[in-house]
Structure formats: C-alpha cells, structure tokens
Amino acid sequence: MNVAVDDELWSAIGDPTRRRMLDLLLATGEGSATSLSEQLPVTRQAVAKHLVALDRVGLVRAAAAGRGKRYRVDEAQLARAVAQLNAVGHAWDARLRRIKQIAEAIQKNT
Fold first, then answer.
1. Per-residue pLDDT tens over the stretch 29-85
2. Tally of structural domains, the chain
C-alpha cells in the first residue's frame, strides 16, 4: 500500500518545539515570535527560525503587524497533514492485519 507523504511537512512537524508552537497558535488564534517565545523555553530568535520552517511548508502564514509579523495556522495545510497521518495509520493497520493472518496461517499449519 503506497501512501503519498510530504516528507518536508512531516520533518517540520517532527520537531517538538514546532508542535508546541502550533498548539499555542491554535489555542490563541495567532501570535508573534515574541509572544510565542514567552511561552516556550527557547529564545525569540529560535522561535523565529522555527516559524520560518513552519511557513516554508505552509503550516503557518505570516501577516505584517506594525514592525513585526503575526502568525496563524493554515488550517487547510494542517488538515492535509492530518489526512496524511490518517492514511499512514490505515496503511499500517492493513499491514498488521496481513501479518496477523500470516502468523495465524503458520500456527494453524504447525
């Protein structure tokens, strides 16, 4: 079973700090690098770099706000990531069912 997975998207989501940032943005609706860094154990500069990675794969979108930027989660891209995760889960469920069938057949023949 072949499931199309966006490796760059999952690489970005794979980082625990980025996942926490997404959680914070989803909870608050939007945020800046400064507001996010106040809630995370990393510097504002580190948050800004993480936001660039999330923006590159389309998980967040930036909008100018004065001298800074405000970030929001792109819900369509997040839904795409969730759909990919579900597809991977279904593929693994099918593989595990097949392994179980093979194991049962082997056990039955012994």
1. 999 999 999 999 999 999 999 999 999 999 999 999 999 999 999 999 999 888 988
2. 1
Instruction: Give buried/exposed letters for 30-58 (b at 16+ CB in 10 A, else e).
Output: bbbbebbbeebeeeeeebbebbebbbebb
Encoded tokens for 83: 């759909």
Q: E strands within 46-93? A: 60-65, 68-73
In a domain, 2, yes or no: no
105: amino acid identity, one letter:
A
Range(s) of the domain holding residue 23: 7-109
pTM for the full predicted model? 0.78
